[in-house]
């Protein structure tokens, strides 16, 4: 079978998408860890970060080996296993983690002792993620 550059690019983009999502979400959670002095909140954020990293490894592994060898980038349904399940699982997990991350700034900023205007400004910065 001849090498198809478009299939290889699509394959690489799927894997890189998960890696980039995992890294961006983890980095945002690390920022949240530095904003809160609350030990229980920090532990919760660490567990959440760990779950995102584990999801990233599992999703990357699933995408890397979704199709049969030797041409693993050939994403035709006859050569690949459960593509729909992998895509739906990744999509649902991505949406759920985004919703949880969007809910974190109000929880973290609630106990921070700064002026209300400044709290609203910081919250607005994190709310940009909704767009």
Question: Short description, anyone?
Answer:
By secondary structure, this protein is an all-alpha fold. The chain has helices at residues 5-35, 39-64, 83-110, 116-127. The N and C termini lie far apart (42 Å).
What does this structure look like?
Helices cover 74% and strands 0% of the residues. It has 131 residues and is mainly α. It starts with a helix and ends with a helix.
What is the fold's blueprint, element by element?
Elements: H1 5-35, H2 39-64, H3 83-110, H4 116-127
Helix pairs in contact: 1-2, 1-3, 2-3, 3-4
Primary descriptors:
single chain; 131 residues; mainly alpha; 4 helices
Distance between the termini: 42 Å
What assembly state would you assign to the polypeptide chains in this entry?
single chain
Topology order in helix (H) and strand (E) letters: HHHH
Number of helices: 4
Radius of gyration: 19 Å
Helix percent band: over 70%
């Amino acid at each position: 079978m001849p090498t198809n550059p478009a299939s290889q690019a699509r394959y690489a983009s799927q894997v890189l998408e998960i890696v980039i999502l995992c890294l961006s979400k983890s980095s945002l959670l690390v920022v949240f860890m530095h904003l809160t002095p609350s030990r229980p909140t920090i532990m919760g954020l660490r567990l959440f970060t760990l779950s995102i990293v584990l999801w990233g490894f599992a999703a990357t592994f699933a995408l890397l080996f979704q199709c049969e060898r030797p041409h693993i980038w050939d994403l035709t349904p006859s050569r690949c296993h459960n593509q729909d399940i992998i895509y739906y699982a990744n999509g649902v997990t991505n949406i759920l983690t985004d919703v949880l991350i969007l809910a974190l700034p109000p929880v973290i900023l609630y106990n921070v002792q700064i002026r209300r205007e400044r709290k609203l400004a910081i919250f607005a910065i994190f709310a940009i993620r909704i767009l």
